[in-house]
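In response to the reviewer comment on reproducibility (Comment 2.3), we provide here a single inverse folding case reported in full, input and output, so that an independent group could reproduce the run without further information from us. The structure tokens appear first.
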């Protein structure tokens, strides 16, 4: 044993909503533990979201353990400041053993059993370790970005705050997932000329037949569907989230409507060479596929309404408001007046600091409901860890209760 090594039954790595939820259950079960958080409990909501960010799921789905949403607008969408207040309120509700500004640099197996964890230079020994640091660690930016003319300002979506931080001129947004589509709208509302590289992200309507689509899907028990029962099985974890927004009460994000109103739409970005952007010829396919996903969701709601005999207003099928002309012309950044690029193409997980045999050949962690083959080693808060809500406010409590049961060896009820 290393000299001055400290012992504790459970270490949680990550003090976000997942790690805090784990702590809540361990506190309730009187299990001694500690949370190591490299920054602060609310840092991702404060430091990695744009100013006009808001939830895309209704407030009633915010169900952290012992801390459900109690505001006046359960069917609304909390904005950035309200989200931060909600998370801080959760922290204050039970005073977790949280060490902020404490980065974990290494997790290895301990020769006495359990795990050795090094945090801010201190050495700890724990029988159980819960990795709750998320999956969004390293921002993805393509290698060719470094060859783009230095006069073009570049940043990743996690660093975007508002239009005023960008130089005057047009903006190229790369990626049409949740962040990309919402940032396009944010820029468009500030009267910026925007070009969007449209990828394969699906879309969903905000409201359908008189209700938020989320309400319908909840009634249909979609959010109780486990990854084991999902048609894609583990492949569900690799699917891009549907784009939609909760801004100003919530509405659809229709990329075709953006195009009709002046946003330049292009296919998937293939490369940028000599300051000219080249695209795959997939714009029509990507738009059509996104619309098909939305239509399929509506059809499933229609079937549920009919099956249950529910009275609900009928809506006409969606009709595209804009169609691409089939051209796939390259885009000269300088000629188009593009002075900024925002990369909205996601993140890669970074688990290089974990030396425990819980990863597959693709360096992805392997678990079943967060439990790995390494005794006492767990993951929490990842997308589709167990259900759709596993990486969100709506489902992390259930997952944390389950893992608390694995640690304590008894059934732990969900708060």
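Designed residues, in position order:
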């Amino acid at each position: 044993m290393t000299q001055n090594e400290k012992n504790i039954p459970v270490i949680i790595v990550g003090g976000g909503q997942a790690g805090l939820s784990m702590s809540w259950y361990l506190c309730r079960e009187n299990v001694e533990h500690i949370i190591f958080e490299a920054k602060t409990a609310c840092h991702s909501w404060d430091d990695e979201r744009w100013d006009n960010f808001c939830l895309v799921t209704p407030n009633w789905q915010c169900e952290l353990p012992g801390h459900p949403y109690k505001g006046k607008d359960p069917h609304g969408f909390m904005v950035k400041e309200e989200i931060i207040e909600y998370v801080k309120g959760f922290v204050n509700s039970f005073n977790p053993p949280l060490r902020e500004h404490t980065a974990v640099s290494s997790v290895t197996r301990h020769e006495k059993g359990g795990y050795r964890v090094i945090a801010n230079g201190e050495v700890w020994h724990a029988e159980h370790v819960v990795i709750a640091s998320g999956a969004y660690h390293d921002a993805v930016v393509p290698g060719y970005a470094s060859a783009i003319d230095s006069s073009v300002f570049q940043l990743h979506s996690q660093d975007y705050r508002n239009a005023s931080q960008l130089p005057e001129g047009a903006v190229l947004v790369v990626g049409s997932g949740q962040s990309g589509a919402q940032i396009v709208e944010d820029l468009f509302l500030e009267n910026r000329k925007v070009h969007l590289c449209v990828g394969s992200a699906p879309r969903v309507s905000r409201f359908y037949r008189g209700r938020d689509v989320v309400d319908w899907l909840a009634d249909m028990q979609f959010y109780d569907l486990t990854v084991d029962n999902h048609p894609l099985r583990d492949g569900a974890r690799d699917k891009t989230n549907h784009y939609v927004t909760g801004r100003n009460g919530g509405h659809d994000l229709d990329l075709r409507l953006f195009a009709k109103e002046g946003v330049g739409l292009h296919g998937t970005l293939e490369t940028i060479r000599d300051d000219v952007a080249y695209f795959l010829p997939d714009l029509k396919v990507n738009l059509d596929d996104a619309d098909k996903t939305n239509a399929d969701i509506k059809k499933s709601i229609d079937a549920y309404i009919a099956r249950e005999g529910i009275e609900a207003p009928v809506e006409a099928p969606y009709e595209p408001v804009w169609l691409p002309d089939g051209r796939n012309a390259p885009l000269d950044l300088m000629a188009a007046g593009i002075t900024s690029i925002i990369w909205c193409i996601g993140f890669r997980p970074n688990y290089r600091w974990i030396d425990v045999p819980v990863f597959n050949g693709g360096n992805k962690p392997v678990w079943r409901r967060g439990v790995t083959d390494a005794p006492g080693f767990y993951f929490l808060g990842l997308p589709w860890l167990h259900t759709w809500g596993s990486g969100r406010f709506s489902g992390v409590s259930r997952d944390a209760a389950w893992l608390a049961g694995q640690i304590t060896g008894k059934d732990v009820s969900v708060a």
